[in-house]
C-alpha cells in the first residue's frame, strides 16, 4: 500500500511539473473559448442539463464536459486560462494513475515477483504522461483529455474485472457506466473505441458467443440508462431531435471532410501518428520478435493484456485512417492501448541486461545529433531580435547535460533507455513552451489585445451587443477574464439595433438604413475583419 502511494505521488508530481509550467501563457485557441464560455454560462444561468450560449441552446455536443469544467471553476473559485487548462492536465494525470493501478494489480496477480517492481510499476504512468499527443491535449481547455479519461476508465476497468477477476456483470456494469458518461461528453462515438477493441479481442480468442451473453446486454442497459438519465429531462425541455440531428450532421461532415487526397492523407496522418505517439510507438516493432511473443504466451494475463491493448490502438488507428477528414486527436482515446503495449515491451526487455550493439550505436548517433542541433538552435537565436525567457536557457542546459550524461555513461540498458526517453520528452516539452509561449504572449496576443481595444472604445458603457456573431475567445476576455464589460447580449435580428449602444458584427450588409449609426470602428482580430457599431 505504501509503495503504491509513493508511485502515485511520483506520477502526480511528475505530471504537474510536465504540464503546468507556462500553461496560461498562450491565449485561448481552437474550441477552448467556446467550451469555457458554455461552462461559465452554466454557472450564471444555473442551467446544467442544456448547454447554452447567450440563451441559445448548443446542440453540437452533450453537456458533461462543460458541466465538469463548470464544477472545477466553482471548486477553485477561478476561471482563468490556467484553471481551465489545468482541468485537462489533471484528467490526463488521473488517466495515468488509473492505468498504473490496473498494471500493478495485474503484476501482483502473477506468480513471479520481480525485484524491479517499483520501476516496473512506473512504466504505464510515465509512458502515458510523456506521449506528445497526450501532452498537447493536456495543455488545452478542450474535451479531449476528459473524454480520454472516461474511455480509458471504461476500457481497462472492463479488461481487469472481466479478464483478470472474472466478474463479468460488474465489468460490463462499470464499463457501461463510463461509456454512458463518454456519450454525454462526445456523443455515441464513445462506443466505437470499446467495440474496436472488444470485438477483435473476442474474435481472436474464439469467444464471439460472449457478444450475445447476458453480461454484455447488462452493460448495454447500463450505457443507455446513463444516457437517458440526461436525455429524458432534456427531451421534455427541447426534445432530443435537435441534438441527434446536430450529432449526425457532425459525423457526416467529419467523414466527408476532405482537405487533401487519400495519398496525401496517408502521408500526413501517418507522419502525425509517428510524431504524436513518439517515442513509444516504435516499441511496436519489437512485437515482430518471436521470443517476446512466446514470453507473453507463457503468461496468460499479460498475453491477454497485450492482445486487448494492441487491438485497441491498431484498430483505432486504421478506422480513423480510412477517413481523409479525420484528425489524429479523434483517435486519442485509444492511446491507452499503445501505452499498455509499450509497457509490456519494456517489461520484457527489462529482464535483458544489455541492449543490442546495433541499437547502442544508433542511440549514440541520436545523442550526438541532439547535441549538434541544440547548438545550432542556440546560434540561430543569437541572430534573432526577440527576447527569450531565462527558463528557456535553463532547460536547454538541462537538456544538454541529459544527452552528455547518457553519452558518457553509455546508453546500454533498457532501464537507462526508458528513463532517457522520459526525460528527453520532459525537457523537450519545457524547451518548447518556455520558448514559444512567451513569444506567443508577446507577438500573437490577438484576442487579449482586441478585448482591451474594444473596452477602450466603449469606455464606460460596459455593455456590448453581438450581431449574429459570437467570437468566443474575445467574449471570454472581455467579460470574464478581465471583466472589461458587464453585459453581453446576442441579437438574432440586426435590422433594429438598440439605441445608444455598441454592436459587434462581421458583415455590414446586415445593417438596415433605419439604424441610427453614429460611428463604425473597423477592427481586425486575428486576421478577421469585424466592425464595432455605435448607435444614437
TrEMBL record:
It is a multi-pass membrane protein. It is found in: Cell membrane. Keywords: Cell membrane, Glycosyltransferase, Membrane, Transferase, Transmembrane, Transmembrane helix. The chain crosses the membrane at residues 6-25, 82-104, 116-135, 144-161, 173-202, 214-232, 269-287, 305-324, 330-350, 362-383, 389-408, 417-439. Its main location: membrane. GO terms for molecular function: pentosyltransferase activity. Residues 61-228 form the Glycosyltransferase RgtA/B/C/D-like domain. GO terms for biological process: lipopolysaccharide biosynthetic process; response to iron(III) ion. GO terms for cellular component: plasma membrane. It comes from the Bacteria. It holds the Pfam family PMT_2. PANTHER family: MANNOSYLTRANSFERASE YKCB-RELATED (PTHR33908), UNDECAPRENYL PHOSPHATE-ALPHA-4-AMINO-4-DEOXY-L-ARABINOSE ARABINOSYL TRANSFERASE (PTHR33908:SF3). This is Glycosyltransferase RgtA/B/C/D-like domain-containing protein. It comes from Caldimicrobium thiodismutans.
Amino acid at each position: 500500500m505504501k509503495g503504491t502511494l509513493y508511485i502515485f505521488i511520483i506520477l502526480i508530481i511528475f505530471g504537474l511539473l510536465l504540464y503546468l509550467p507556462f500553461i496560461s501563457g498562450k491565449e485561448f485557441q481552437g474550441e477552448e473559448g467556446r467550451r469555457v464560455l458554455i461552462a461559465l454560462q452554466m454557472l450564471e444561468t444555473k442551467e446544467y442539463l442544456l448547454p447554452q450560449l447567450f440563451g441559445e441552446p448548443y446542440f453540437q455536443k452533450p453537456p458533461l464536459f462543460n458541466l465538469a469544467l463548470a464544477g472545477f471553476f466553482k471548486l477553485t473559485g477561478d476561471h482563468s486560462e490556467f484553471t481551465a487548462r489545468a482541468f485537462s492536465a489533471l484528467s490526463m494525470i488521473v488517466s495515468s494513475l488509473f492505468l498504473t493501478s490496473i498494471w500493478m494489480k495485474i503484476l501482483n496477480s502473477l506468480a513471479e515477483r520481480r525485484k524491479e517492481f517499483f520501476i516496473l510499476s512506473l512504466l504505464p504512468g510515465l509512458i502515458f504522461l510523456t506521449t506528445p499527443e497526450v501532452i498537447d491535449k493536456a495543455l488545452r481547455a478542450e474535451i479531449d483529455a476528459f473524454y480520454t479519461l472516461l474511455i480509458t476508465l471504461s476500457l481497462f476497468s472492463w479488461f481487469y474485472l472481466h479478464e483478470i477477476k472474472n466478474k463479468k456483470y460488474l465489468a460490463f456494469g462499470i464499463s457501461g457506466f463510463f461509456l454512458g458518461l463518454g456519450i454525454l461528453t462526445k456523443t455515441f462515438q464513445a462506443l466505437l473505441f470499446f467495440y474496436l477493441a472488444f470485438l477483435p479481442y473476442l474474435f481472436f480468442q474464439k469467444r464471439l458467443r460472449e457478444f450475445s451473453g447476458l453480461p454484455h446486454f447488462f452493460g448495454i442497459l447500463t450505457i443507455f440508462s446513463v444516457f437517458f438519465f440526461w436525455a429524458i429531462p432534456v427531451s421534455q425541455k427541447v426534445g432530443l431531435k435537435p441534438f441527434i440531428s446536430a450529432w449526425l450532421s457532425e459525423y457526416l461532415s467529419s467523414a466527408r471532410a476532405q482537405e487533401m487526397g487519400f495519398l496525401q492523407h496517408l502521408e500526413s496522418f501517418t507522419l502525425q501518428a509517428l510524431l504524436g505517439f513518439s517515442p513509444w510507438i516504435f516499441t511496436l516493432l519489437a512485437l515482430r520478435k518471436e521470443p517476446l511473443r512466446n514470453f507473453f504466451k507463457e503468461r496468460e494475463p499479460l498475453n491477454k493484456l497485450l492482445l486487448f491493448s494492441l487491438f485497441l490502438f491498431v484498430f483505432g488507428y486504421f478506422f480513423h485512417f480510412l477517413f481523409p477528414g479525420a484528425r489524429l486527436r479523434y483517435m486519442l482515446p485509444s492511446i491507452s492501448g499503445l501505452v499498455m503495449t509499450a509497457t509490456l515491451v519494456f517489461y520484457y526487455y527489462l529482464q535483458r541486461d544489455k541492449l543490442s550493439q546495433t541499437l547502442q550505436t544508433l542511440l549514440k548517433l541520436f545523442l550526438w545529433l541532439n547535441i549538434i542541433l541544440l547548438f545550432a538552435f542556440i546560434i540561430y537565436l543569437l541572430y534573432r531580435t526577440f527576447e527569450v525567457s531565462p527558463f528557456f536557457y535553463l532547460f536547454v542546459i538541462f537538456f544538454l547535460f541529459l544527452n552528455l550524461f547518457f553519452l558518457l555513461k553509455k546508453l546500454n540498458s533498457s532501464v537507462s533507455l526508458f528513463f532517457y526517453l522520459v526525460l528527453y520528452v520532459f525537457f523537450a516539452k519545457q524547451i518548447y513552451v518556455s520558448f514559444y509561449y512567451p513569444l506567443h504572449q508577446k507577438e500573437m496576443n490577438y484576442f487579449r489585445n482586441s478585448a482591451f481595444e474594444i473596452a477602450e472604445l466603449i469606455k464606460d458603457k460596459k455593455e456590448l451587443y453581438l450581431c449574429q456573431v459570437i467570437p468566443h475567445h474575445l467574449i471570454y476576455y472581455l467579460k470574464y477574464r478581465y471583466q472589461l464589460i458587464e453585459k453581453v447580449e446576442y441579437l438574432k435580428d440586426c435590422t433594429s439595433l438598440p439605441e445608444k449602444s455598441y454592436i459587434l458584427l462581421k458583415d455590414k450588409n446586415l445593417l438596415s438604413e433605419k439604424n441610427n449609426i453614429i460611428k463604425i470602428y473597423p477592427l481586425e482580430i486575428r486576421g478577421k475583419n469585424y466592425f464595432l457599431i455605435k448607435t444614437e
